[in-house]
Amino acid sequence: MGSVDAGNGWPIFAKPPAELAVHPSDDEPHHTLYLMCDDIEQTLTELRGKGVEVVGDVRDVRWGLLSAIRLPDGSEVPIYEPRHPSPQWGA
């Protein structure tokens, strides 16, 4: 399984067609599923064209450009364009 160090001991593991990140925390343990993409604006435009609701504007956060999409049950899943290196599957 390919992986890269995104910095500060945060490994990112390639999982086709997703990635798994394990981040250290000083707080209570928790987990969040993030979708990743190469171009957030293009991806959100394509998703809107397929009827997916995009939640809020794209925000510039330390590690990338972040937004979210709404699932049919009303919950949200974050999606982002990373600034950190991204592992390639099979590498």
Class, according to the CATH hierarchy? Alpha Beta
Shape by Cα distribution: globular
CATH topology (level 3) name = 2,3-Dihydroxybiphenyl 1,2-Dioxygenase, domain 1
Classify the helix fraction into a percent range: 10-25%
According to DSSP, the number of beta strands is 7
| Main sheet: strand order | 4-7-6-5
Order of helices and strands: EEEEHEEE
Low-pLDDT parts are none
- β-sheet strand percentage: 35-45%
Sheet with the most strands?
4 strands, mixed
| SS-derived structural category | mainly beta
Distance between the ends = 7 Å
Averaged pLDDT: 83
For CATH, the homologous superfamily is named as 2,3-Dihydroxybiphenyl 1,2-Dioxygenase, domain 1
How does CATH name the architecture? Roll
Global Rg: 14 Å
The total of helices stands at: 1
Work out the count of structural domains: 1
In short:
Helices cover 11% and strands 40% of the residues. By secondary structure, the protein is mainly beta.
In words, what does this structure look like?
The protein has one domain: 2,3-Dihydroxybiphenyl 1,2-Dioxygenase, domain 1 (Roll). It is 11% helix and 40% strand. The chain is built from one helix and seven strands.
